[in-house]
């Protein structure tokens, strides 16, 4: 279960901005629940590497088209969250590892 009553955007968890999302997500598949949560936050799912890795390992569903969403439509509750200011640097894990990455965070 994801308690999405109030989220945080930007420079969280210490200096972020509160976002009143007012949603709850429940599933027996934690990968699917997180995938729906990422979509509700307007975040590119490819940015969340563990979801893809878990799905590739057979640990859950990451394909939104294969997730049965009940209740209100996802598009009706989705809010575009502002990402962390260091997001570009934090996403370097997605590229080729040519050298040891700098300390992130």
Please, could you describe this protein's structure?
By secondary structure, this protein is α+β, with helices and mostly antiparallel strands. The chain has one domain (2-90). Helix content is 26%, strand content 15%. It contains 4 helices and 4 strands. The protein has helices spanning 30-40, 49-56, 74-77, 87-90, and strands spanning 2-4, 7-11, 15-19, 23-25. The strands form 2 sheets. Strands 1-4 form a two-stranded antiparallel sheet. Strands 2-3 form a two-stranded antiparallel sheet. A hairpin with a 3-residue loop joins β2 (7-11) and β3. The longest helix has 11 residues, at 30-40. It starts with a strand and ends in a 15-residue tail after the last helix. The model has no long low-confidence stretch (mean pLDDT 89).
Key attributes of the depicted protein:
single chain; two-stranded antiparallel ribbon; 105 residues; alpha+beta
Given the structure, what is the number of helices? 4
Work out the count of structural domains.
Answer: 1
Query: Which term fits the overall shape?
Result: flat
Largest sheet, spatial ordering of strands: 1-4
Q: In which range does the helix fraction lie? A: 25-40%
Q: Enumerate the spans where pLDDT stays under 50 for 5 or more consecutive residues.
A: none
Overall pLDDT score: 89
Beta content: 15-25%
Q: How is the biggest beta sheet arranged? A: 2 strands, antiparallel
What structural class do the secondary elements suggest?
alpha+beta
In whole angstroms, the N-to-C terminal distance is 27 Å
**Number of E strands:** 4
Order of helices and strands: EEEEHHHH
Radius of gyration: 15 Å
